[in-house]
């Protein structure tokens, strides 16, 4: 990571493709496991697709930058850029406000939730956890998705 290899091919394409891969797997095995892609109506499918886009384009960029600054840079002996943290913390709060509003109206587990988990796990180990906990619906959602047995197994592997 210090050499920046994670920001070059083939690693960068793996991250982008991972969402497409998880969507393919969820659709391929929809009848065999709990559904992760909502297909019972066009409207619900569209809403689920919107939230997958929101995660990819609103949450992930901000959460990734914050994770890099607050967790990974210190791990590699690099100095955290406080200006980047402050800028992205403000963006995270805006995203979480949108989530709080939406989660107050409806909630169902799907692929978009799974896509949040890696960055959520990182951010919950930082001072930014307060932003999730201060929003009741977001806090409940985070508790629900991080308590899933399969996620627990993933976290245990990191160990």
Main β-sheet description = none
Principal-axes shape call: globular
CATH structural fold name:
Glutathione S-transferase Yfyf (Class Pi), Chain A, domain 2
Mean pLDDT: 87
CATH architecture: Up-down Bundle
Main location: cytoplasm
Keywords: Cytoplasm, Detoxification, Transferase
InterPro entries: Glutathione-S-Trfase_C-like, Glutathione-S-Trfase_C_sf, GST_C, GST_Phi_C
GO molecular function, one term: glutathione binding
SSE layout and pairing:
Blueprint: H1 11-28, H2 42-75, H3 82-103, H4 111-123, H5 129-133, H6 136-146, H7 149-158
Main location: cytoplasm
GO cellular component, one term: cytosol
Protein name: glutathione transferase
Describe this protein with a few key phrases.
EC 2.5.1.18, GST_C, Glutathione-S-Trfase_C-like, mainly alpha, 71% helix, 7 helices, cytoplasm, 159 residues, Glutathione S-transferase Yfyf (Class Pi), Chain A, domain 2, glutathione binding
Description:
This protein has helices spanning 11-28, 42-75, 82-103, 111-123, 129-133, 136-146, 149-158. The chain is mainly α. The protein has a single domain (40-157), classed as Glutathione S-transferase Yfyf (Class Pi), Chain A, domain 2 (Up-down Bundle). The longest helix has 34 residues, at 42-75.
